[in-house]
């Protein structure tokens, strides 16, 4: 097992890519704190899936809009699990709209959840990681950390921001055994992508079927990336073999950003 005995916390892991990474890390022997929104039934279902691998699993409901709740979540995980080895910043939301009518509250929420929450988690987790001279910070960015698309002003801005945060944290911690890398998926078929199909159709005046085709037209493989493929890359970046990899931004996008 690649992560036996490691302690991981993954934000936004009640669904999609986060849940897939939580399962993959537990499968490799890690104890995992999951986090995210959802009904009690959703949370119980996510907990059951991650607990299936027999490691210790806990849920923390901290809201990624709130810096104070994030600081409490990290402190609790450090105390209850005996130190965090792996921090994955994954929570994210999307909103698709032309810039001139982009709702201000959506801009604020996307910047807070997709970017500022990672500042808060990293800020709170670094002292413990530094003291143990070991840590793995993985930020789930996006192809939109490297390139842009119309109607996604807040998301593209937040994802470019997290790419910069990744490099800065990597440089600050390079001599402390703590790595910080980003993973930049193209389109992965999860609830986040499913929800933006109707919005894209509306913005562009096309049908939902055409919107789905349009989404995949950006991805040269014409295939959605799978949650398991992203999770496997995250597991690798959390291993000891990945110790010299820091400040990198890994594309897993079917060739999208090669064009
Ligand atoms: P998802 O909607 O399936 O999951 C998002 C998770 O974030 C959920 O667990 C949700 O509860 C959580 N979340 C949302 N707001 C929160 C809040 N205020 N506090 C705590 N948790 C909150 O989405 P996904 O597709 O799995 O996306 C996960 C990450 O991957 C995001 O950062 C997203 O930008 C990124 N990403 C996704 C794709 C894709 O195609 N799906 C592509 C590139 C990057």
Could you outline the blueprint of secondary structure elements for this entry?
Layout: E1 7-10, H1 16-27, E2 31-35, H2 40-51, E3 57-60, H3 67-81, E4 86-89, H4 104-132, E5 135-140, H5 153-173, E6 178-185, H6 191-204, H7 208-217, H8 227-238, E7 249-252
Parallel strand pairs: 1-2, 1-4, 2-3, 4-5, 5-6, 6-7
Helix pairs in contact: 1-2, 1-8, 3-4, 4-5, 6-7
Bound molecules: nicotinamide-adenine-dinucleotide (NAD).
Task: Describe the structure concisely for a colleague.
Helices cover 48% and strands 14% of the residues.
Question: Sheet with the most strands?
Answer: 7 strands, parallel
Cα shape:
globular
User: How many structural domains are formed by the residues?
Assistant: 1
How are helices and strands ordered from N to C?
EHEHEHEHEHEHHHE
Q: Radius of gyration in whole Å, from Cα?
A: 18 Å
Q: Indicate the low-confidence ranges by residue numbers.
A: none
Bound small-molecule species: nicotinamide-adenine-dinucleotide
The proportion of residues in beta strands is 5-15%
Strand order of the largest sheet: 3-2-1-4-5-6-7
CATH topological fold name: Rossmann fold
Would you state the CATH class?
Alpha Beta
- Counting DSSP E segments of at least 2 residues, the number of strands comes to 7
Binned, the helix content reads: 40-55%
